[in-house]
Design a protein that fits this description.
The protein is mostly helical. It has two domains: 33 residues; 36 residues. The longest helix has 17 residues. It is flat.
């Protein structure tokens, strides 16, 4: 089952759920959201490196790949 299928089915079930089920689902989801660390800290070195890579990419100096190029490269390496 795909992520989209899960979302659609869950939404349909929630529309039919009684208050007890809604509260249980809410508590589970809230617990998960509150446990995710959103305060990711990047080192100054990483920020500098990312900014340089972005600048190089935007100026055309950095090598970029399309998704098709990446797929082709990965698939060719998997076949070896």
């Amino acid at each position: 089952m795909t992520k989209l299928d899960l979302k659609q089915k869950t939404h349909a079930y929630i529309e039919l759920a009684d208050d007890k089920i809604l509260k249980a689902v809410y508590i589970i989801l809230e617990s998960h959201v509150n446990s995710v660390d959103t305060n990711i800290k990047f080192s100054p070195e990483l920020i500098t490196s990312l900014n340089k890579a972005k600048k190089d990419h935007l100026s055309g100096k950095g090598k970029s790949y399309t998704i098709d190029e990446v797929r082709k490269s990965v698939l060719s390496k998997l076949k070896k």
